[in-house]
Amino acid sequence: QVQVVESGGDLVQTGGSLRLSCTVSGLTFDDWAMGWFRQVPGKEREGVSCITRTGGATYYSDSVKGRFTVSRDNAKNTLVLQMNSLKPEDTAMYYCAAGGMFSGGYCAWPIVERDFGYWGQGTQVTVSS
User: What angle do CA 24, 29, 31 make, to 5 degrees?
Assistant: First the structure.
């Protein structure tokens, strides 16, 4: 049974930083690309970032490029999203997506929901203006 658990969401002021973590169990973590998505009520889930299985390549949406950094620790089955210079428009529920269904553990950017097999429950990020 695969479990995906996110943590780290919080209320922060504009310009602040947050570090989201995601721990995965029940699958061979370093076989798979991993992703971060976010969603606000009434809108589709948006792909924020993707990282290849080795961590050798990363991808970001234009809206977060230069402010967010994704990383992974395959020894600890952990994915991290470091978010800096946060803006009110970053407010959303953030989801960790495991089991990226890309050949060779690579990312096919842009990512969409159907590219991933396993999801966490989400962690809320709220940025106040």
Answer: 155
